[in-house]
Amino acid sequence: MPSNSARLYTVEDVRAITDDLNRYEIIDGELFVTPAPGFRHQAALARLFRVMANYVAEHHLGILFSGPFDVVFSRLTLVEPDLLFVHRDRRHVFTEREFPAAPDLAVEIISPSTVRTDRTRKRSLYQTQGVREYWVVDPKLRQIEVWRADALEPSVHRENLTWQPDAAVAPLPIAVPDLFQDP
User: Fold this and answer.
1) CB atoms inside a 10 Å sphere around CB 179
2) Where in the chain are the domains?
3) What's the CA gap between 122 and 73, in Å, rounded?
4) Between vectors from CA 47 to CA 41 and to CA 52, what angle results, nearest 5°?
5) In whole angstroms, what is the distance from residue 119 CA to residue 83 CA?
6) Which of 84, 97, 143, 173 sits between 20 and 30 A of 135, alpha carbons compared?
7) pLDDT confidence of 123, banded at 50, 70, 90?
8) What phi and psi values does residue 13 have, to the nearest 5 degrees?
9) What H or E segment, with its residue span, contains residue 56?
10) Strands 70-74 and 98-99
11) Dmax over Cα atoms in the chain, in whole Å?
């Protein structure tokens, strides 16, 4: 949720904040502070990461990270998607500390404290910056919204989602209900 301050924050300001288990992100200088994610969020993230990581590794597609890892679009915009993918052809863009460009895929798993930001500010940011796909994973509704860079509406997946980050490789089928199973 955004802070009430009119101050513009920079990447350097965010990196100077003492680690307190909150997530600090900035969009156009506006600070967003969110608490550590809850059980459903982390369970869905772990399941999605496991499915995708095996596919990415098997086909040598690129780099898949589970957050936090900084994606920096400018000195006033730093976000930490829950999951990000960068195709192997672009891995040279990474620095030790950040990815200073649009990832090929950014995934946010919404929590009650992030739903508005993830569905509006981050969606707009990712589309404007040229992120090829942005997924909003909703554990409560048990669905994934897929936004493409030029889309006005998402495609909503409640049963199956097919991800194909490289046309030369068979797509990955993802059974959406499996991501939200109770342990």
Assistant:
1) 22
2) 37-179
3) 12
4) 120
5) 16
6) 97
7) very high
8) -60, -45
9) helix 39-58
10) parallel
11) 48
